[in-house]
Design brief:
The complex is a heterodimer of chains A (405) and B (416). Helix content of chain A is 39%, strand content 19%. Chain A contains 14 helices and 15 strands. In chain A, the strands form three sheets. A seven-stranded mixed β-sheet of chain A has the order 3-2-4-5-7-6-12, sandwiched between helices. Chain A is globular and about 65 Å long. Chain B has 416 residues and is of the alpha/beta class. Chain B has three domains: 206 residues, Pyruvate-ferredoxin oxidoreductase, PFOR, domain III (Pyruvate-ferredoxin Oxidoreductase, domain 3), CATH 3.40.920; 109 residues, Alpha-Beta Plaits, CATH 3.30.70; 33 residues, no CATH class. Chain B is 27% helix and 19% strand. Chain B has twelve helices and 13 strands. In chain B, the strands form four sheets. Chain B has a seven-stranded mixed β-sheet with strand order 2-3-1-4-5-6-7. Chain B has a two-stranded antiparallel sheet with strand order 8-9. Chain B has a two-stranded antiparallel sheet with strand order 10-13. Chain B is globular and about 70 Å long. The chains are: A alpha/beta (405), B alpha/beta (416). Chains A and B meet through strand 8 and helix 11 of A and helix 1 and strand 2 of B.
Chain lengths: 405, 416
């Protein structure tokens, strides 16, 4: 392998969007079957994939289905028959595929899907909310969020390696914020094919392969005497996923020379922070800008950007967050009627912290819904509330930020 | 902290979508050649898959990665160094598919920033089209007709690289003409385009526009309601039906004018407008019936008056009108306001007739869409004959040749 890497061509650089980066990853991963059905912002991926196919750069079955439901069913079956597959959708398109989404992890299908995060209708809106992807959080889907086009490309490759690991065999959805990531072109380093080949072995479905030479029945009807054990399989697979993710990121750093450090979450200015914000996706940009400004004013604010939501890095996150005097969780989603009327992420972080040795006060923030910009003043306001909480002044458990009121 | 640059490209949906994307990409690539980092993106709330609708692309450039972050995860910059308008009729303002009200073309321009327009008009004709701005700004005109093509095609008339050359001239801190040439070769590998860029760079001149110059009108705007002021259930009230109105000459009340949405008018989609000869109108109703935007008011005397607060300039009325020269589409840059043609006619018929003749004599001067094959060539000849296009010392030169010679050695193989 060392020889492969030495003789391999260098990385090239290209000005591409997050969606194009995912399409490039499909090409590098030599995906066999891709299905598509248009909805903004995911449709940008299918456009670039179609371009790669028509230019002869990607040799795959590219099927435009008649709906998202069929789109996800087709790749599910193709994956069962041993094909590496890619799929994706957004907002209510993802929801229209929901039945197919529920059966995919149960059948241990290592599908990789891109969710171009979009608000759920009604009313019709294009902007980012995370509720679409989060809807599958309980079903056995691995869920990861990225915040730039480079990470989108890298994580798409990582997702195949993790999902297709025999210890895991679970689907993985990559959350990409609509507009800010899917429609924004930045400089991205594109690795040479040799590196990807060295990193990503062929998909081997082994004894689960649906093939005449391997006579099996997939998904028979079962009842109460079987189902609980089958659920336990997925529980264990998800548990193992967390270990595999760590291994794969280490291998990625070795081969590609890009080290993401802690694979589960990124820490920004946390070393000496009094308080931290936690969030997912592209809101990292205004948060980082605001933190740099606040640090000039002497306010010790840090940021934890969660990448992997499923499997949830419970112990790691609890240990990290326990160090601070107050924690604020920014949700680009809602969960009406939930505990403390918080967003999904805040509820999960609270749950993770409950058995922790130290439990800082936690404030939940609902912010940036429907793609509304999370602004630097928004972040400063949230941070100021946390600094007050750190000083012993009780803050509301949930606050809506940036709403006209 | 380094410096953050921003450039916006204002363009017309479908016709210029690829052009705008190429320009913003080109800016990011040229800035990259200059050692800066950039992003290129379209305004997400726009819907540029609609004919002629004003839309925007942006290039945001930082001198380093941290600075660039200040301009990321946003729909649009708060302020731009350069606004590029690739169709001069956009100078009248921008109302996108997204619901922002009417935005002056120079709204985002920072004090002293530059507005670059592609146009065959001179500054004196262009400046009154744009709303006044409190601070002075620069105007640079890139000679040429607006570059229009379709959604899936690209009219490679070098408008993209000529814009890049002009940017290098007015904002050399962003990138130089050498950087532009490097980016062109990397992106397009076309030496001819580098020549065009350099010619444009060398010829670009700016003129200062003062706060006292421009359209004094206040663009329509509105206040977004608070959450507790909005109706529940994603419900909005319907627009009221409409009523008759008075004849300014006879004071007779009649006809019908539908009430129109006061906050979403769409008329900046228009690159040309119908001019109506009320004396030859046979009242056949076809324009009124076929207008996709219900823009025609029925007058008390049974005529049809295209309301310029509602007309999107699609040209269907002209196409369906059975009377020759009764409805004529005329380039939007020929008009200063949205006032009623019918009222003008009612008040002073001889004056209206003179006005009408003056407007329709440039009949082929449409910005996009042609009535017949070969009309583009005819249009050039007419423009030359009418003096719209100045061709010093060379009678037979076509506008294409003029633009090409402006660009450089693209077709003739030599300059001067």
């Amino acid at each position: 392998m060392a020889q492969v890497l030495e003789t391999a061509a260098k990385e090239t650089e290209s000005l591409i969007s997050g969606s194009e980066a995912i399409a490039v990853a499909c090409k590098l991963a030599d995906v066999d079957v891709i299905t598509a059905y248009p909805i903004r912002p995911y449709d940008t991926v299918m456009q670039y994939v179609a371009k790669l196919v028509s230019n002869g750069e990607l040799d795959c079955e590219y099927i435009v289905a008649e709906s998202e439901h069929s789109q996800f069913e087709i790749v599910k079956h193709a994956s069962a028959a041993g094909a590496r597959v890619f799929c994706g959708s957004s907002g209510v398109g993802w929801m229209y595929a929901f039945e197919a989404l529920t059966v995919t992890p149960a059948l241990r299908i290592p599908m990789v899907a891109m969710v171009g995060n979009r608000a759920l209708d009604d009313p019709g809106a294009f902007g980012v909310e995370h509720n679409d992807a989060l809807a599958v959080r309980d079903l056995g889907w691995q869920l990861v969020w990225v915040d730039n086009a480079q990470e989108a490309l890298d994580v798409a490759l990582i997702a195949y390696r993790v999902a297709e690991d025999r210890r895991v065999f679970l689907p993985c959805a990559i959350g990409c914020d609509g507009a800010f990531l899917t429609h924004s072109q930045t400089q991205v380093k594109i690795p040479p094919q040799e590196w990807v080949n060295a990193f990503l072995p062929p998909y081997n479905r082994g004894d689960l392969l649906l093939h005449p030479d391997n006579p099996i029945t997939v998904a028979p009807q079962v009842n109460e005497d079987w189902l609980m054990e089958i659920r336990k399989h997925n529980d264990e697979a998800m548990k193992r996923s967390k270990i595999v993710i760590k291994e794969v990121y280490a291998d990625f750093a070795r081969i590609f020379g890009r080290d993401y450090g802690n694979p589960y979450f990124e820490e920004y200015h946390t070393e000496d922070a009094d308080v931290v914000l936690v969030g997912m996706g592209t809101l990292s940009m205004p948060v980082k800008v605001a933190i740099r400004r606040m640090r000039q004013e002497g306010k010790k604010v840090g940021f934890v950007r969660l990448r992997w939501f499923r499997p949830f890095p419970t112990e790691e996150l609890a240990q990290t967050l326990g160090r601070f005097k107050a924690v604020g969780v920014i949700d680009r989603d809602f969960s009406f009627g939930s505990p403390h009327l918080s967003g999904v992420l805040a509820t999960e972080v609270r749950a993770a912290l409950y058995p922790a040795a130290t439990r800082p006060p936690l404030a939940g923030f609902i912010c940036g819904l429907g793609g509304r910009e999370v602004t630097v003043p928004d972040v400063q306001r949230m941070s100021d509330m946390l600094l007050k909480a750190a000083a012993g002044e009780t803050q509301p458990l949930t606050t809506w930020i940036g709403i006209r009121e | 902290m380094g410096r953050l640059f921003a450039v916006e490209i204002v363009y017309r949906g479908i016709f210029q979508k690829n052009l705008a994307k190429n320009i913003s990409r080109g800016i990011a690539l040229a800035a990259r050649a200059n050692g800066k980092m950039g992003i290129s993106f379209g305004r997400y709330g726009d819907s540029p898959e609609r004919n002629g609708i004003p839309a925007k692309n942006f290039a945001v450039i930082g001198t380093d990665e941290e600075t660039l972050q200040e301009g990321m995860a946003k729909y649009e910059p708060k302020e731009v160094d350069i606004t590029i308008s690739v169709d001069d009729t956009l100078l009248k303002g921008v109302e996108s598919w997204a619901w922002y009200g009417l935005q002056p073309i120079n709204r985002l321009l920072r004090p002293g920033g530059t507005l670059i327009v592609t146009s065959m008009h001179e500054a004196d004709a262009l400046i009154p089209m744009a709303h006044r701005k409190e601070t002075p700004y620069q105007l640079a005109i890139l000679k040429g007709t607006p570059s229009f093509s379709g959604l899936w095609v690209y009219k490679d008339d070098h408008t993209d690289v000529r814009i890049l050359g002009a940017i290098a001239r007015v904002l050399p801190e962003l990138f130089t003409i050498d950087d532009v040439e490097q980016a062109i070769m990397e992106e397009w590998n076309d030496p001819l385009k580098t020549v065009s860029a350099r010619k444009s760079h060398d010829r670009t001149a700016t003129r200062s526009v003062q706060p006292t110059e421009g359209n004094p009108d206040h663009p329509f705007e509105f206040t977004l309601p608070k959450w507790h002021e909005m109706r529940e259930g994603v419900v909005i009230p319907s627009i009221a039906r409409g009523a008759g109105f008075a004849d300014p000459a006879t004071e007779q009340v009649g006809g019908f004018r539908p009430v129109r949405n006061p906050t979403f008018k769409k008329f900046t989609t228009r690159t040309m407008r119908p001019v109506v000869d009320f004396e030859t109108c046979v009242k056949c109703t076809l324009c009124w019936l076929q207008c996709p935007d219900s823009c025609f008011d029925v007058t008390p005397d049974g005529l049809y008056d295209a309301n310029m607060e509602a007309c999107c300039g699609c040209g269907v009325c002209e196409a369906v009108c059975p009377v020759e020269n009764c409805v004529t589409m005329v380039n939007e840059s020929a008009f200063q306001d949205n006032s009623s043609q019918w009222e003008m006619w009612k008040k002073d018929k001889p004056a209206y007739k003179a006005w009408l003749q003056e407007k329709i004599q440039h009949k082929p001067e449409r910005s996009h869409g042609f009535r017949y094959r070969g009309q583009y060539q005819d249009q050039i000849k007419t423009m030359v004959a009418d003096g719209v296009l100045e061709v010093p010392g060379k009678e037979e030169i076509t506008i294409t040749e003029r633009v090409v010679s402006d660009m450089g050695e693209a077709s003739s193989g030599g300059m001067e």
